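dude i think i finally got it to work??
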Amino acid sequence: MIAPPRSAVLLLLPLLALAAASAHGANPLHHFCGTTGNFTANGTYGANLNTLLTSIVAAANATDVDYGFYNLSAGGSPDATVNAIALCRGDVGITDCRSCLNDSASEIALRCPVQKEAIIWYDYCMLWYSNRSIFGTMETSPGYYMWNRNNVTNNVDQFNQDLRNLTDNLRDRAANGNSTRKFAVGNATAPNFQTLFGLVQCTPDLSQQDCNGCLVQAISRIPECCNHKQGGRVIFPSCNIRFEVYPFFDASAYESPPSPPQSPVSPPPPPTNNTSTKGKDTNSGRIALIITISAVGLALLIAGILCICLRSRRMKKNLEAIPIDEIGNAESLQYDLNTIRVATNDFSDANKLGQGGFGIVYKGTLANGQVIAVKRPSAELGQGDQEFKNEVLLVARLQHRNLVRLLGFCLEGRERLLIYEFVPNSSLDHFIFDPIRRRQLDWERRQKIIGGIARGLLYLHEDSRLRIIHRDLKASNILLDVEMNPKISDFGTARLFVVDQTQDATSRVVGTYGYMAPEYAMHGLFSVKSDVFSFGVLLLEIISGQKSSRFHNGDITEDLLGYAWRSWREGTPSNLIDPGLANGSRIEMLRCIHVGLLCVQEVEADRPNMGAVVLMLSSHSTTLPLPSRPAFILPSIPQSDIASRAAVTHSNKFEDGQTQESVNEASITEPYPR
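look at this
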């Protein structure tokens, strides 16, 4: 590290009286010195920064009720104003919080002695200052990754689904926090009897929407940094997430934060001088107090019992009595439970076709010889009822050769079953991402799959009696029949639009990160154009044969959209094409890449609708507009950095040209300033 000028060190001497080590560790996890400009060490900005850092440390040491969040400014003139945010991890006690902020204030002065903006992260806290306004603003750059060196070896898909469910749950809880605390921890059962622990946190100055959007972006980075890993972190200035297969936070953090203190009770009247009534008044007060406490306790007990009973009753109704009248005409599709048990050999493991976040799918054979696929949602999943009704209500009324066909359903007791036509070739992801099976998909078949998916989406958006937004279009939700015709499946998260409706919003973002449009992932806004974005990602995956989250190009790994855009800008889009596609029209392949880039444009209004997409894919006389930059582009990462397993690792260079070395026994760090 380059030694700072002596004057800069002297400027912050009051902050350097530190213990040799602290409970959170003497070394920061990471730091970043900004590139917005430098200040003169003895100037006004430097003096204001010194005052500000001193004030943060003083504020942390002065209060007994510490929420672990500080937002301060120093300086009057715009050119010399310094703004700072300091945040301690939500499960950290006052003493460790103070110690961490003390260390942060001194260490950031040493590492970034003359920069007008800097941020430093420790395990227990972070400190960020800038010459611009940063309060109430969501910032996801710069950021960095860390991951556990141990891999998940079995049931990787189920582990990823359990992780997704846990992080989504924690995200909702943290985003709904108050202005002093947006923090949540929890655990979930993972495969092989493991327990998965998770932590998420936002700076409390963010709105609910911005906290949710920040965490959505952080969670979406997990497949890129920590795929198949037993633990990992994604850390931004405004939010951070972490997961491990071991407990890493204080167990008391499971409890809700203490409620604000109640209004003080009025003091009792002053005692009289009558000594004969003094004892009697005292006894009467004690008796009244005991009676009051007993009455309040009894009332709380009765209220608790009623709440439990009502909740149990509600859960029972959800599981056993989904109203048939809501399903309407679909009632004629109802199957008997015993019929399905016989068909699937009582849901034997030998008949299991696959398992996902919604439940397990079994293969079955009816008495007439018809082969079926039975989706059996888990009764423990809180969102299973709504997804079940969605599929019955929507899919039963949709008929198209490129949509999976719902044959019926079963509702008996706790069982809720969906019966589909059996599609023998599994899903598209089993082919397109497998280096061996991918060879079965020549250009003619891939073109057929692309066209079929596009026509199926066009039917959902414009040609059916209903307007359906799928919201979870991805390779694993495209089934392939015996002739490799694509069939869109899994309508559990789909939404129905009324006539002339163009957009809707939700506080519960569902779907798969990597396929989500930016307006949906960050703000919950969805429309036909959010499905178009997902289609564009899927189209580029089919052309390249690689997942959107990891595109390997020699020694470089980056996200697929970023590589596709860079290749387009450099005039080499053919680099994106799967090398196995030796035969086939290069012009058609390049046209598909062009259409894919049009679909994933960052601005929703710039994307074509599915009618235009089908026309562009089928007509070579249609002139295609130039695409603009896609959303969610990440920088390229040398493969050697990703493969590193050393305990001490060197990160990529920052924007300012400095290189950061980080030490961590359990994880590896990968920064990605954007």
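The chain has a mean pLDDT of 76.
im so relieved honestly
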